Amino acid sequence: MMTPSAARGILDAIHWKPAIRWVIDAIHVLKPVRFQSIRRNEVGSKIPAGTVRAAMNRGSLAGLALKVEDSRQQRAATVLVDVAYVIEAHFVLTDKADGDENEGKHLDIFNRRAERGQCFHQPCLGTREFAAAFSLIAPDAPMPAPEPEHRTDDLGFGRPRDLGLMLWDIDHQAAGRPSLFFRARLDNGVMRVPRPGSPDILR
User: Fold this and answer.
1) Considering only CA atoms, which of 97, 83, 99 is closest in space to residue 6?
2) For the chain: N or C, fewer Cβ within 10 A?
3) Among the listed residues 93, 130, 91, 137, the one whose alpha carbon sits nearest the alpha carbon of residue 114
4) 64 touches 47 (CB < 8 A)
5) Vertex 66, ends 61 and 69: CA angle to 5°?
């Protein structure tokens, strides 16, 4: 299941300014939740910043190399496959907003960019390897819904499905940047997300 913080990251990739903060209201799940185990080759180390700085100061790249063969690590991961979501969200003005900030201006910018498929960086689901495609749902268009064969108890049809504790977001303002969680439930394919400040958000 996509977390609210991942959903916010997708919206931030389309339009973000210090003056606004996206608040996720709900995530609609359109396809069954399916997992796949994969293995990825990754590099286990990186070139130290001091080595890079020294190479820059002396004007030579000699010795500035990382051999992938010597530092390769294989990591296992369990990932979601063949996903489709609808993100329901709104934004609020932050304390960095000027007195003349206009909510309508930000909404117009977001709608225009989303309609054209524009983004500041490619949105992703978790890591850059899992790029996310997006499109804007017009206000007068019907809300997409799961296909009839997907309306099963897997998506909370018939009775709500308890997804357990899920990451809501990370509190970057607090000391230690603690993770915030909430009890996630799928009800008829929709996961409602608690508002900021809600007692349902756990530290």
Assistant:
1) 83
2) C
3) 137
4) yes
5) 145
What are the DSSP calls for the chain, one per residue?
Answer: ---HHHHHHHHHHHS--TTEEEEEEEEEE-S---EEEEEEEEES----HHHHHHHHHHT--TT----HHHHEEEEEEEEE-S--EEEEEEEEE-TT--TT--HHHHHHHHHHHHHHT--SS--BSSSTTSB----PPPTTSPPP---GGG-SGGGTSSS-EEEEEEEEEE-TTSTT--EEEEEEEEBTTEEE-PPTT-TT-B-
Residue 127: CB atoms within 10 A of its CB come to 10
Q: Write down the domain spans for the chain.
A: 4-34+82-192, 38-75
Confidence category of residue 66, pLDDT binned at 50, 70, 90: confident
pLDDT band, residue 145 (cuts 50/70/90): very high
Class of domain 4-34+82-192 (CATH, top level): alpha beta
80: burial class by Cβ within 10 Å (0-12, 13-18, 19+)?
middle
pTM over 0.70: yes
